[in-house]
Amino acid sequence: MTNISIRFLVAFGLVIFFVACSNDDSSNSKDENATSIGTTNSQDISMKVYDPCEMLTSKDIQEIFPEASIKITTHDTKPANPLGMRRCFWEASEDDMKFVQLTISSDSESEAMKVDEQFENNRKYIQNVKSVSGVGDGAYYGGSGLKAGAGLHVLVKNKGVLLGVQVGLGFGNKDEQKHLNIEKSIAEKVIQKL
Fold first, then answer.
1. In the predicted model, what is the mean pLDDT of the chain?
2. Where residue 46 falls among pLDDT bands split at 50, 70, 90?
3. 3-state DSSP assignment of residue 51
């Protein structure tokens, strides 16, 4: 195995581990100092830190699930892994897998590799990956569900950010195009706030 392959497998394994551990109590508390901390100097934009729970409102989630009672069950106030990834998980149904998850990895918090490297490396290992145009500087879709690599992955180079957007539209809903359309809409809202 090459050094890059080993680095990717370690990094990808960490992402999967932390996504699987999304109910960690330490990530549920909100830290007032963690929201959109950054500098005002445009040359230091890559040093900006983004709180994913601040990038979408409950109203944004309610538009997807109008009948649901929305609650945040995971809120990373610090990076969840060495890739600089923070997560926010909005639950719309406890028993029907209706949810929105937004992850934001940033160059400013990554200890392992830059987000453009993460974007390219992760893409190589996702089965049936589909390129997506019209959002960010590059995007691909890894399918619906909770499998490794699922959801929409969007690179925003000038912000030093990699977005991951996953929605669950309920058990049995395998409408890939509907999942992708909603995830793309969410990504566009987030990009406007970066």
1. 82
2. low
3. coil
